[in-house]
Design brief:
Length: 151
């Protein structure tokens, strides 16, 4: 299926082409007509028939703006583009100025803490044995991860 926009009498149409088995054209035409398409042309072959449909291309804000921009004189187009560029530069400059002025009011990032120096009194000579570790009392029941916490 191929969809191609085209201009006919200042109205833009969208074209699409569909192939169907010969004899099933009526069903295909009815389906596409319910979707808002109208039959434009029909090309019958021995086994297949190619049907071309068209519909008015829906207009969007961007397409209307593009058409309006295209109708302007070249000098007017240049002035619109220059005005938009100046506006973008003003927005960027205002953001930079606001960021630098607000930078003094914001707290500074804290300095990274330095690791304490290890002295011989803080260095362990060997790891503790299991018997030396404090034994945690065992829980009688395991808590399930799926269980809701108590309120």
């Amino acid at each position: 299926m191929l969809t191609v926009p085209a201009v006919v009498d200042e109205v833009q149409y969208e074209f699409t082409s569909v192939q169907t088995i010969r004899g099933g054209e009526a069903k295909t035409i009815a389906k596409w007509r319910t979707d808002g398409w109208e039959l434009d042309s029909r090309d019958q072959g021995l086994l297949r028939t190619e049907l071309t449909f068209r519909r008015v291309k829906p207009t969007t804000f961007a397409s209307r703006a593009r058409v309006a921009f295209g109708r302007l004189q070249p000098k007017a187009q240049l002035s619109v583009v220059a005005g938009a560029g100046v506006l973008v530069l003003c927005l960027i400059g205002g953001g930079v100025v606001a960021g630098t002025q607000a930078g003094e009011a914001l707290p500074r990032w804290p300095r990274p803490r330095q690791m304490p120096q290890l002295t011989p009194s803080r260095v362990r000579s060997r790891p503790k044995l299991l018997s030396e570790r404090r034994q945690q009392p065992r829980r009688r029941f395991r808590r399930s991860r799926l269980r809701h916490p108590r309120l």
